[in-house]
Task: structure prediction
Amino acid sequence: MSCMTEKLSYGFSFFSFFFSGKSAEIRYGSGSISGFFSNDAVEVGGLVVKDQEFIEATKEPNITFLVAKFDGILGLGFKEISVGDAVPVWDNMIKHGLIKEPVFSFWLNRNAEDEEGGEIVFGGMDPNHYKGKHTFVPVTRKGYWQFNMGDVHIGDKPTGYCASGCAAIADSGTSLLAGPTTIITMINQAIGASGVVSQQCKAVVSQYGEAIMDLLLSQAQPKRICSQIGLCTFDGTRGISIGIQSVVDEGNDKSSGVLGDAMCPACEMAVVWMRSQLKQNQTQDRILDYVNQLCERMPNPMGESAVDCESVPSMPTVAFTIGGKEFELAPEEYILKVGQGSAAQCISGFTALDIPPPRGPLWILGDIFMGRYHTVFDSGKLRVGFAEAA
Result:
């Protein structure tokens, strides 16, 4: 077959397959599957990929798979994270010379009225679906399509959290935009999202807020502050919970070890928040008040935070620095509206996900981001590119 560029509007099919009987299991962020490996020729658009190994799922123990309107998952990550060392479809397309160039690209249609939900192009890019030139950044770690990201801005103010760089991945399989609780909380506060009140966070501010402030003003190393005040131990790179016991509710006779374990990350978040405000020359009272507000905006453990639909037009932009360029998201792009009229609900598109070092902290730029920015995955040059979607 001659090399070609193949456009696909989310669909693929199998022919007559055979199974190997080798068992397999995959765990996702919202569920898991188990089954066994089989082998088939897979049709992707007009391309036929021969001898493709895949998993037949026999168990899907999660409600996500019951309500989702899809028949399977076409993984496009690197072989390094492939279950059972199976060769991904994309790798086999390249191996068998089925495509023009080792590049695939995503356009997600944000117009809900259109029948076409989006387009994947295997072997190139569709110039009808992006504006200007793409900003490319190198893949820093093969597995997911991981790259380095710069600072996050809320409105016109940098948060400082990723000023020295953060790891990020672009992932069409993630509906929202996920990031560390510290910054997601700052975003939620700025957009008025209602989350869950964190007792641990409030306890840290109440008991240790002034001490943290004093240490920051004395130019203490931020990463060591929480160990200096006794809430963490420092392993040379980060703080680790030491299992201290504390009582937040005076009416509670029992100390909570779980609470103690949470005091260390709550302290580290407070340090980041206070440091951000000190750089803006805020007074101590205003800083402590701001941090308490952030405690009120801690993301819901289930991952969703609600906002007032009428406030959407007045919300700030949120921008991510990639390749030295700021990629902005407007409120109508990061807020999900469910329902119509008075029954409508608005949900923040930002969800908290804390992945510890050395893999994290890690941002996942999911469909919220990829809907605004046409995304290119370049296997040949090991890079990811973004341009404004059209």
